[in-house]
């Protein structure tokens, strides 16, 4: 008796197995040339970026002093009609200029989690998962830029009358119909955030890191693939083969890049960061980014780092829990580079 195929995932997973990604790294391939071609193709998939950078027009809205740091609340322009609220934390009692860490929350009430400001019980639980990234950064002596990502916190949709209950879905779908992606738009905000940091005299612009968990890990990863000014990339609870994660488990719409699997899987994408430091943080029991998919992607990325003779700059740190950050594992390694 023949098998009947009625379930969409049967078709999609069989189709996935038949694909031969165009930009998968081949043994013996010249890695720098491969990166250059691959990065250009990835930019196209992400929806391209503005041809000309808009004036940043930064404004400091507030400055507060705390025991160990100063905190500025600010806003800058990423592109026309897209302004970025952020917090800048400047540590005291350190020699300036100092390295800077861009801090990115995932699906959460907003960037106030990064500065350790709990406004609800949910916020307290989130911070308890080591997500107060900006506070961690200044404790280590680094300047921190906590950016409000599109669709979260202060940048959530409020004007559209009928909208999805999931904050990022409408914007993600709108970007796709325009030939863009929400990942690409968020990456551009990071590019402009780096532009802003480079203008601050307190920042050592040669030592800029990017760190984020979950959706923040997504943008940390893709930003480092695109912008070589990020010297240390720390994606947490995101890096994982697409075939193990978003192709098999429900994920938010903002995780999807049209045609990405025709181009490459996660392991090859990681090769775009070589020879810079890539510190992958994962949870052994993460239910949406399975650890076997993390390890599979890591094996492929390691092949590319070997081609660059940069294996020592590639790290996999696995916490014993689930979908969260693991600061005790991560910071000793991050500090080696900053």
Count of all domains: 1
Strand content: 15-25%
Low-confidence stretches: none
Task: Give the CA-CA distance, first to last residue.
Answer: 63 Å
For the biggest β-sheet, the strand order reads 1-2-3-5-4-6-7-8-9
CATH topology: Rossmann fold
Oligomeric description of these chains: single chain
> What average pLDDT do the residues reach?
96
Shape: globular
Note the main sheet: 9 strands, mixed
What is the C-level CATH assignment? Alpha Beta
CATH superfamily: Alpha/Beta hydrolase fold, catalytic domain
Order of helices and strands: HHEEEEHHEHHEHEHHEHEH
CATH-derived architecture: 3-Layer(aba) Sandwich
The number of distinct helices, counting runs of at least 4 residues, comes to 11
- Helical/strand content category: alpha/beta
The count of DSSP E runs of length 2 or more, i.e. the number of strands, is 9
Radius of gyration: 20 Å
Could you explain how this protein is built, in words?
This is Acetylxylan esterase. It holds the Pfam family Abhydrolase_7. The chain is α/β, with parallel strands linked by helices. It has 11 helices and 9 strands. It has helices at residues 8-18, 31-46, 121-131, 133-139, 169-177, 182-199, 215-226, 260-263, 266-270, 291-307, 327-337, and strands spanning 59-65, 69-79, 82-91, 98-104, 143-147, 203-213, 230-236, 277-283, 314-319. β8, α10 and β9 form a beta-alpha-beta unit. α6 packs across α7. The N and C termini lie far apart (63 Å).
């Amino acid at each position: 008796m023949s098998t009947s195929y009625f379930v969409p995932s049967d078709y999609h997973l069989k189709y996935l197995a038949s694909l031969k990604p165009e930009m998968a790294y081949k043994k013996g391939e010249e890695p720098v040339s491969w990166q250059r071609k691959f990065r250009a193709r990835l930019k196209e998939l992400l929806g391209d970026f503005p041809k000309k950078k808009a004036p940043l027009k930064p404004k400091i809205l507030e400055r507060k002093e705390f025991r160990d740091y100063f905190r500025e609340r600010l806003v800058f322009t990423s592109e026309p009609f897209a302004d970025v609220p952020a917090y800048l934390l400047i540590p005291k009692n350190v020699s300036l200029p100092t390295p800077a860490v861009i801090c990115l929350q995932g699906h959460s009430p907003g960037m106030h989690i990064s500065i350790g400001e709990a406004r609800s019980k949910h916020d307290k639980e989130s911070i308890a998962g080591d997500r107060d990234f900006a506070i961690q950064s200044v404790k280590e002596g680094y300047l921190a830029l906590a950016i409000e990502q599109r669709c979260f916190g202060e940048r959530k949709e409020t004007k559209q009358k009928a909208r999805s209950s999931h904050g990022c879905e409408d914007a993600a779908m709108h970007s796709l119909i325009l030939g863009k992606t929400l990942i690409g738009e968020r990456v551009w905000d990071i590019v402009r955030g780096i532009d802003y940091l480079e203008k601050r005299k307190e920042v050592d612009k040669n030592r800029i890191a990017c760190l984020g968990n979950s959706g923040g890990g997504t943008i940390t990863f893709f930003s480092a693939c695109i912008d070589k000014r990020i010297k240390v990339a720390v994606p947490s609870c995101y890096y994982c083969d697409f075939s193990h994660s978003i192709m098999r488990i429900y994920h938010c719409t903002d995780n999807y890049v049209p045609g990405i699997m025709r181009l490459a899987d996660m392991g090859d994408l990681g090769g775009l960061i070589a020879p810079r430091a890539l510190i992958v943080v994962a949870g052994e029991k993460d239910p949406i980014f399975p650890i076997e998919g993390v390890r599979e992607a890591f094996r492929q990325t390691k092949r590319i780092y070997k081609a660059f003779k940069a294996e020592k700059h590639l790290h996999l740190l696995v916490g014993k829990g689930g979908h969260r950050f693991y600061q005790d594992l991560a910071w000793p390694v991050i500090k080696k580079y900053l």
